[in-house]
Amino acid sequence: MKDLAFLTSPDMSKAEVVTNHVVIAEYAGIERKSVRRLINNHKNDFENFGRLRFEITTLPDSRGQKVKIYQLNRNQAMLMITYLDNTEVVRNFKIALVKRFDEMEKELYARKIARAVEKQKGVTLHQSISEWEHYPRHGNTWHTIIRSLLATTVTGLTKKQIQARDTDWRKEKTLLDLLNSKEMERYKMLESIAIAMIEAGSDYEPLKVAIKATMTTKKVHTDQSKDF
């Protein structure tokens, strides 16, 4: 059921995953006008989860006449399901729709990351953090948090352990000053991932998970290569 949900725009910075009332009617086994009536009758409810958008277009069976098709985001679509009879067809449709939204949202996120990677040339980590949509939450502290995350991940050490292994450590030295060449190479790789995710609007926790997972995967591949 790959046609259950789709992107609203080819522009990844503006795209959103949605379905529409025509799809819901078809797969839930009810008339389109019934779905439209539900949307019109509960418009305020739907708008609790975002602007209720629509497009005017023709359908294969509309005989060339343009019709109004409501687009529903994930939450609006789930709300719509609650208004339908809990038949087996509707239950199966809901399961399929949730799965499709999950697939499309993951795909959209991956595309945003890919686009951010393409655009990040010339963008520094400092710049991307400073312009991050989540920057106001911790302000300048984000710079320390993220750089510490990268440094501790590539070394496998805590911040204090990194500082302790350098006999000439002074307060004016940054963690980057204490990394060896191999660690610095890995740091740069993770830095590019961090920039891409920040540019894509990721929050900190997903970024942290991705950074940790990248080094774990790299370590596994390295260990396996030693066995041959």
UniProtKB/TrEMBL annotation:
The organism's place on the tree of life at top rank: Bacteria
Protein name in UniProt: Phage regulator protein
